[in-house]
């Protein structure tokens, strides 16, 4: 038993160090003067806010479309449910640059869907909408899967009892299912938002400009080297950690009893 | 009040077949059947949660077969009580009234009255997670009763409770039924519960209703072997009908027996012998007995103020007799394992069923 604990502890520590050491090294190695100058750089601030905003849009839109899908996957029995679940998980598996190319082929000007959206003034190539679309495509499994698990964990009898007490399916959803599943949904939303912020591959294909923070980091690394890319990365990481920490603490806060 | 006519429901491989049921207003009906027999599906079908393949369901004179659950006004209490964990006890009880957009003051008055009736006033501000099983059951009952449902559907409401609480709440259910006068359909696999509560009993197995009627009628005259086993008749003896006799491994049983007319067309049948019609050391009144003979006392078990005695016949056939402690005391010294006792099986009480 003791040897098991020691080995399991060592293996877990290796994995944690794998994540923590590079981040710490980058943060600690940052030159404070350049960091300060970067903080005042309008382009950096603009790209970070753009990234956060686009990821938020992606999360909100996927929330509206994805929560009903998650409910259906959790509650309905129908042929093809497994296939739909597979489709939801697809974006995790395919390379994100390939996802970007696929999106470009559908939402670009050469395909009818891109043309149709263009005709109502919604262009996806080189726009904020394109960035949000790319972020949504690659990160939606996080939200849908978390929401599905959340709904699945609710005793279906609660919903049935609500119906016998006079609640319509809509009222049951909003008064029983959603209030009981909001924590997993919020948790999934946070994960989706965070994943959206970090998206690079699909975004550069669909919308290199306006530049999101990951694209800006890449460009500065390419143009000026590690010294000037690092401060932007450090600021992005610190901001993400701060917001992520606050949201996670809300989502995982113990229920009042 | 509630009428089901030839209802068929299919859920995956499971099927409810030709269910016909009639509940009078104010009646306490109990559906008794083994686990996995479709009792909960029956209850949920009545509540409108499953689509009917065929047949009709009426509440009063109204055909509700196609109505959704929210349009039927039936109360449901599940085995796990299904209280909304995110709401307080007050909000759980008030849920249906709030859906109906009743004025706040009216809701408060109704909840307070119901809480007082069920003795749960101190719990109103608590959350379900902090309640005991018995308290949850009362809250669940309050939530259903407050809407004055046409029929209250109870899905094994006592099975998750410890024995003492179960006994107490069984009495409580009887009181509620008496005082509120609501029509109740209660499903259970517990014999004691069923016989204690039922005005009307429905015996169910494998998605079918085997028999329904007053509990004592079913007990005295089970229609088939499965019913006899489900209502707890301990002794089933296989026999062959021969004019005025039934030939069994115990020997010949004198007839007429109350239901032999029905069974006489079958050569093979089972005699159901309730414990109370087995007399030990029967004395001289031989005319009242269908069978008289000697048996050896086998295992005995002592529980709940009763003694269960196994009697083994020389053919290997065994009977079980349940005696009160007082009766057991009267046979002091005669009922030791291995001793031979005289046994008489009374004509009154025996019935015969088909396999």
How does this structure look, described?
The complex is a heterodimer of chains A (about 260) and B (about 350). Helices cover about 80% and strands about 0% of the residues of chain A. Chain A is built from twelve helices and no strands. Chain A has helices at about 1-30, 30-40, 40-75, 80-95, 95-105, 110-120, 130-150, 155-165, 170-195, 200-205, 215-225, 225-250. Chain B is an alpha+beta fold. Chain B folds into two domains: about 1-220, P-loop containing nucleotide triphosphate hydrolases (Rossmann fold), CATH 3.40.50.300; about 235-355, Beta Barrel (OB fold (Dihydrolipoamide Acetyltransferase, E2P)). Chain B contains ten helices and 20 strands. Chain B has helices at about 40-45, 90-100, 105-120, 135-145, 165-180, 190-195, 215-220, 225-230, 260-265, 325-330; strands at about 1-10, 15-25, 30, 55-60, 60-65, 75, 150-155, 185-190, 200-205, 210-215, 235-240, 245-250, 250-255, 270-275, 280, 290-305, 305-310, 320-325, 340-345, 350-355. In chain B, the strands form four sheets. Chain B has a six-stranded mixed beta sheet, sandwiched between helices. A five-stranded antiparallel beta sheet of chain B has the order 13-12-11-14-20. A five-stranded antiparallel beta sheet of chain B has the order 15-19-16-17-18. Chains A and B meet through helix 8 and helix 9 of A and strand 6 and helix 2 of B.
Question: Key terms for this structure?
Answer:
heterodimer; A: 257 residues; mainly alpha; 82% helix; B: 355 residues; alpha+beta; Rossmann fold; OB fold (Dihydrolipoamide Acetyltransferase, E2P); 2 domains; 20 strands; 35% strand
Count of alpha and pi helical runs of chain A: 12
SSE topology string of chain B = EEEHEEEHHHEHEHEEHHEEEHEEEEEHEE
Mean pLDDT across all amino acids of chain B: 88
Terminal Cα span of chain B: 34 Å
The pair of chains with the biggest contact is:
A-B, 20 and 28 residues
Helix/strand class of chain B: alpha+beta
**Basic shape of chain B:** elongated
């Amino acid at each position: 038993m003791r040897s098991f604990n020691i080995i399991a502890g060592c293996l877990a520590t290796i994995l944690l160090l794998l994540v923590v050491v590079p981040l710490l090294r980058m943060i600690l190695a940052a030159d404070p003067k350049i960091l300060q100058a970067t903080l005042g750089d309008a382009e950096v601030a603009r790209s970070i806010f753009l990234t956060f905003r686009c990821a938020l849009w992606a999360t909100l839109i996927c929330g509206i479309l994805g929560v009903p899908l998650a409910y259906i996957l959790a509650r309905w029995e129908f042929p093809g449910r497994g296939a739909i679940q597979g489709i939801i998980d697809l974006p995790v598996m395919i390379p994100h640059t390939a996802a970007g190319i696929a999106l470009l082929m559908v939402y670009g000007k050469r395909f009818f869907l891109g043309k149709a959206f263009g005709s109502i003034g919604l262009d996806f190539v080189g726009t904020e909408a394109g960035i949000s679309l790319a972020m949504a495509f690659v990160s939606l499994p996080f939200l849908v899967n978390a929401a599905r698990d959340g709904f699945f964990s609710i005793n279906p009898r609660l919903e049935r009892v609500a119906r016998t007490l006079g609640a319509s399916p809509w009222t049951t959803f909003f008064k029983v299912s959603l209030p009981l599943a909001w924590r997993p949904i919020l948790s999934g939303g946070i994960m989706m938002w965070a994943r959206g912020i970090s998206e690079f591959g699909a975004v550069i294909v669909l919308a290199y400009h306006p530049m999101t923070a990951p694209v800006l980091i890449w460009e500065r690394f390419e143009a000026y080297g590690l010294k000037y890319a690092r401060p932007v990365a450090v600021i992005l990481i610190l901001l993400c950690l701060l917001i992520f920490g606050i949201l996670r603490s809300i989502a995982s806060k113990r229920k009042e009893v | 009040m509630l009428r089901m006519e030839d209802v068929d429901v299919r859920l995956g491989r499971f099927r409810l077949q030709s269910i016909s049921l009639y509940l009078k207003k104010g009646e306490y009906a109990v559906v008794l059947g083994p686990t996995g027999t479709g009792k909960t599906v029956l209850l949920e079908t009545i509540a409108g949660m499953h689509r009917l393949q065929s047949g009709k369901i009426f509440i009063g004179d109204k055909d509700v077969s196609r109505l959704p659950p929210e349009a039927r006004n039936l109360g449901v209490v599940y085995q796990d009580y299904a209280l909304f964990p995110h709401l307080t006890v007050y909000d759980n009880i008030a849920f249906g009234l709030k859906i109906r957009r009743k004025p706040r003051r009216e809701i408060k008055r109704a909840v307070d009255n119901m809480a007082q009736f069920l003795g749960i006033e101190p719990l109103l501000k608590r959350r379900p997670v902090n309640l005991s099983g018995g308290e949850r059951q009362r809250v669940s009952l309050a939530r259903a009763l407050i809407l004055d449902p046409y029929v209250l559907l109870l899905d094994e409401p006592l099975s998750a409770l410890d024995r003492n609480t179960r006994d107490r709440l069984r009495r409580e259910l009887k009181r509620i039924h008496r005082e509120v006068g609501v029509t109740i359909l209660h499903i259970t696999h517990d014999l004691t519960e069923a016989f204690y509560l039922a005005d009307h009993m429905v015996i169910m197995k494998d998605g079918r209703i085997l028999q329904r009627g007053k509990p004592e009628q079913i007990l005295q005259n089970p229609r088939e072997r499965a019913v006899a086993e489900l209502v707890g008749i301990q002794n089933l003896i296989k026999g062959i009908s021969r004019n005025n006799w039934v030939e069994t491994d115990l020997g010949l049983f004198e007839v007429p027996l109350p239901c032999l007319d029905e069974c006489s067309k079958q050569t093979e049948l089972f005699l159901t012998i309730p414990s109370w019609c087995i007399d030990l050391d029967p004395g001289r009144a031989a005319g009242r007995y269908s069978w008289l003979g000697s048996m050896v006392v086998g295992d005995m078990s002592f529980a709940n103020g009763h003694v269960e005695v196994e009697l083994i016949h020389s053919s290997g056939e065994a009977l079980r007799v349940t005696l009160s402690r007082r009766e057991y005391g009267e046979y002091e010294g005669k009922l030791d394992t291995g001793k031979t006792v005289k046994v008489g099986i009374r004509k009154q009480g025996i019935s015969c069923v088909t396999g």
